[in-house]
Amino acid sequence: MTDVESQTRLRCGVHAPSIGEYADPQLLVQMAKAAEQAGWEAFFIWDHMLVDVHAPPPVVDSWVTLGAIAAATERLLIGAMVTAISRRRPWKLAREIATLDVLSNGRVVFGAGLGVPRDAEFEIFGDEGDARIRAEYLDEGLDIIRGLLSGSPYSHQGAHYRIGEVTFAPKPVGSVPFWIAGNWPNPKPFRRAARWNGVMPEKVGGRLLEPEDVCDMLKFIEARRPRLETDQTFDVVIGGFTDADEGRAADRVKLYQEAGATWWLERLHPDRGDLASNLLRIEQGPPVVG
């Protein structure tokens, strides 16, 4: 049995936007509190800068908002899903991760990826737009963040970053999981994910994965994942939509659990419905899968 297959319990969280009518830190805090009360196990928010060059919506800073969410909740795992490392200084990001983890008493998950869209999130600000170069920044930045979060002396000499020997304190309360985003079936993000603690996939074109896609993706990752000790796990994080009907919700999510998913994230996408209906979906609680 593999380290992925050995995990049988599916956990459920909420994945909320931080743009448009959701661009209100107080609203996002209230949503997180409602999610915790309703029995969801995590609350993640988008991490964007502009979203659209031509018609930019309101956007709030994810990491400032997460600090408020951490202070207002007690149990939820929290994080930004996902952060584009190539437009951040990895050492500043490591400080933010460690601080948020201490504030939340060890409840942070770090989600990382290339980021989209290319023009509105990178090029308009003078940042690198080429995905291949940004992937180099991403891989190097992931290693740097892990090294700095260790709390041990760390230095780095790479193609894009150079750091003299430093020691960061305080270190996180626990071991912060790194979840890697990618668009299946592009192979490179999933080779990257195999090195870390989890994967948060979509399909090319922004579509959602079907259960059979999850099976294929996991075969690809497992073939490239180093053998780990038995207490180390790998999370498979699937985002999607369920409705208020408990039976239909459970049936839908169970298909992904059987395919190997360890997390279901209820997506509160702006295109899904109005704010009131999405708030109601949070209050109705997570799907219950036996």
Please, could you describe this protein's structure?
It contains nine helices and eleven strands. The two termini are 21 Å apart. With 290 residues, it is α/β, with parallel strands linked by helices. The protein has one domain (11-284): Luciferase-like domain (TIM Barrel, Alpha-Beta Barrel). The protein has a nine-stranded parallel β-sheet. Strands 6-7 form a two-stranded antiparallel ribbon. Helix 3 links the parallel strand 4 and strand 5 (110-113). Helices cover 36% and strands 18% of the residues.
Assigned CATH architecture: Alpha-Beta Barrel
Low-confidence stretches: 1-7
- Name the helicity range: 25-40%
How many helices does DSSP assign?
A: 9
What's the rounded overall pLDDT mean? 93
Please describe the biggest sheet, giving its number of strands, its sense, and whether it closes into a barrel. Answer: 9 strands, parallel
The percent range for strand residues is: 15-25%
- Kindly provide the radius of gyration, computed on alpha-carbon positions and rounded to a whole number of angstroms: 18 Å
The name CATH uses for the topology is TIM Barrel
Count of domains: 1
Topology pattern, helix = H, strand = E: EHEHEEHEHHEEEHEHEHEH
Strand order of the largest sheet: 3-2-1-11-10-9-8-5-4
Distance between the termini: 21 Å
Alpha-beta content class: alpha/beta
Tell me, briefly, the overall form: globular
CATH superfamily (homologous) name: Luciferase-like domain
The CATH class is Alpha Beta
Q: What's the total number of strands? A: 11
